[in-house]
Amino acid sequence: MICLLAGLPLIASAGTTQETPLITTQEAFDSYRSYYRNYDSSSVDVRRYNEDKIARLKEDPELSYGYTRAPMTLWDAFWLWVAHQLQGLFKDRGVSPEWDRLILFVLFTSALVYVIIRLLKINSLKIFYGEKEQKPLEHAVAEENIHEMDFETLVKEATTAGNYRLAVRLLYLWALKLLTDANHVTWVPGKTNYDYLREIKSSDLKNGFRQLSYYFEYAWYGNFSVTPELFKKVSGLFNDWKTTV
Amino acid sequence: MEDNTFETRVDLTALRDSVEKIRSEVGKVIVGQDEMITLLITAILADGHVLIEGVPGVAKTLTARLMASVISVNFSRIQFTPDLMPSDVLGTSVYNLKTSAFEFKAGPIFSNIVLIDEINRAPAKTQAALFEVMEERQVTVDGHTYPMETPYMVIATQNPVEHEGTYRLPEAELDRFLFKIAVQYPTMDQEVDILRGHQERKGQMPTGKVSRVLTPQEIAAYRAKVHEVYCEDHLFRYIAGIIHETRNSPALFLGASPRASVAILNSAKAFAAVSGRDFITPEDIRYVAIPALRHRVILTPDKEMEGVTSDEVLKQIMEKVEVPR
């Protein structure tokens, strides 16, 4: 048994050294025919290609899939030159020619977009959402500037004309001017009366201004009529308050 | 400051009493959130719908339910879910075998106060079902138009859009809400009061603690009073100025609509009436402007990316628009 096992590698190596004979297709076919001739007597009609037809098809230009190189234009020559330059830059760094073209494309497209944006002087974000331009306010309600108004004269004119409602309004604007001049409040057109009231720190000043605001709001926004007696009351209140500013 | 120098031309005594009663009843359960309650009362008087937005658990739904509980009207609630269909909201025609005819089965939208909970969890198809009823107070199904009873009010709640499983509401629908009320977390002291209140209720439902203090007839009468509130001519220009500025602001992609102007006017009148005045002041306009506009404007993408909110932009706009004096 041991001898048998020892002899196996020798047998295997003998098998591998034997060469397989090569046969052609025709030989294989003939061999097949000779082998099966005893069993299959039917005649075989071997079909052949029509050589003429193949030659005609080969000459048909519509069936020609060969590649003919187009003549190189100046533009192609430029790109080829750029590609060569890039290859020169990257060839020692193992970058493939496909990457060359991609990097080149990105660089040139970015440069072109940048030049267009600079030339048109546009905000690049506008391209995506269409930013609106800031327009000046067209709806300033009060055309008066409290710092340029002569309140004493204006109040006198209003009371002489019997327009006590307007006179109350002028007293209120006068009060606002006094507060602004004395730095108790900061004059901003968008502030409401209560914004100014909240800004005043002195309680005496605040109480007086609160009362003036009350009369102003009822007379002006509420469109209540103001009698001479009521105006006298408001005027007295204003004059007392003025001394505390 | 109040004195009798100027006699009120519109009697607002009953209205103010009712407002105080509502505050008192809702205040039995809700701690803080005064601005939300004031705006809800204002919306009822201005005949508008309200969208309440806040993170989960800040009493959005509870406040809405309580507001419905203090008014003696029909109340229905719809929980908006991703699979909700328009017919689930509006109703549908069902074939009656006995009469051999189609009969309309009204949906939960047919009520006086409709609470739509988590409105932004339903897709746009279902949201579109609300367009007609919110604006025209009627529903058209199969060629028939069904008008809603008065008063009619939709109170919707939603979580912020960035929360899981929510959709952005269509602009057309948002424009139909008078106010979007942003509910904030309570303060530390308010939180303590909430816990005390919860302890005292001993498991009782919060809505069971409030009484009905307002009838539909009273609401109709108060709304008529609100219409009589005076608006000085310059204040029309002030409102128009704010709206106009939202359309010109470079920070806003979409400005406010003319419907927003009307909303500000109506709500400022209602707020003035709640405050006991029969005329509006710029302060009233400023108070209602942000809740009336914050959901109607859309920020530009760059402002949105910067984290700027519509409230901040609107505040800046109002600081720029001159207050008439």
Walk me through what this model shows.
The complex is a heterodimer of chains A (245) and B (325). Chain A is mainly alpha-helical and 245 residues long. Among the domains of chain A are: 86-128, no CATH class; 151-242, no CATH class. Helix content of chain A is 62%, strand content 0%. In chain A, helix 8 packs antiparallel against helix 10, helix 8 runs parallel beside helix 11 (228-242) and helix 10 (203-221) packs antiparallel against helix 11 (228-242). The longest helix of chain A has 24 residues, at 97-120. Chain A is rod-shaped and about 145 Å long. Chain B is α/β, with parallel strands linked by helices and 325 residues long. Chain B has a domain at 31-185 and 192-197: Rossmann fold (3-Layer(aba) Sandwich), CATH 3.40.50. Chain B is built from 14 helices and eleven strands. Chain B has helices at 13-27, 34-45, 60-69, 86-90, 124-127, 130-136, 171-174, 188-201, 216-227, 233-248, 258-274, 282-293, 301-306, 310-320, and strands at 49-53, 75-79, 91-96, 101-106, 113-117, 138-141, 144-147, 153-158, 177-182, 252-254, 298-299. In chain B, the strands form four sheets. Chain B has a five-stranded parallel β-sheet. A two-stranded antiparallel sheet of chain B has the order 3-4. In chain B, a hairpin with a 4-residue loop joins strand 3 (91-96) and strand 4. Chain A binds chain B through residues 125, 128-129, 131-135, 137-142, 169, 172-173, 176, 188-194, 210-211, 214-218, 220-224, 230, and chain B through 1, 5-6, 230, 232, 234-235, 237-238, 240-241, 244-245, 248-250, 252-253, 277-283, 286, 300-302, 318-325.
List keywords for this structure.
heterodimer; A: 245 residues; 62% helix; B: 325 residues; alpha/beta; Rossmann fold; 14 helices; 11 strands; globular
